[in-house]
């Protein structure tokens, strides 16, 4: 008999279940809205609400406890800097669960779990930023490739016609050097 044991087992061992709740809570805090099954959402609600309540007391001990759950400094900063300020006057009830039908494969009940007063732009923001960085990197790589092609083309042109493609200053310097060596040769002939 499971007297006084609350919460679902979700067909997982304890360590697996805790890891599942930590991963779901990270996703929920980052995106502020996720879709999962209804039992997982119901178990996730008190887990995340305790984290957000700890975030309202801004001291080192609570930051360390939240970090032990989330394991990411960026998410911990969001909890303490953004979400704690947003829910400063709210005494609990930071999360809303909305039923969203049944899953196609096994007809499991689905639910959308979201933060109350959520930021609509937060969902998928990391993916958008990652895509922008990828596009910028691609543009820079394309520019570098084009520069390399131009340099190779210039080098090939220099190999085929080296005198034509030399800069005028270098040609003048070479001519001056030739004249100075000719003068030296003439003086050495006179001394003999």
Provide key terms for this protein:
192 residues; mainly alpha; 50s Ribosomal Protein L17, Chain: A; 6 helices; 3 strands; 10% strand; elongated
Protein described:
There is one protein chain. This protein is mainly α and 192 residues long. The chain has 3 domains: 14-123, 50s Ribosomal Protein L17, Chain: A (Alpha-Beta Complex); 135-160; 161-192. The protein is 64% helix and 10% strand. The protein contains 6 helices and 3 strands; from the N terminus they run αβαααββαα. The chain has helices spanning 14-31, 38-56, 60-70, 73-86, 125-160, 168-191, and strands spanning 33-37, 95-102, 109-115. The protein has a 3-stranded antiparallel beta sheet. A hairpin with a 6-residue loop joins strand 2 and strand 3. The chain is elongated. The relative contact order is 0.10. The model has no long low-confidence stretch (mean pLDDT 86).
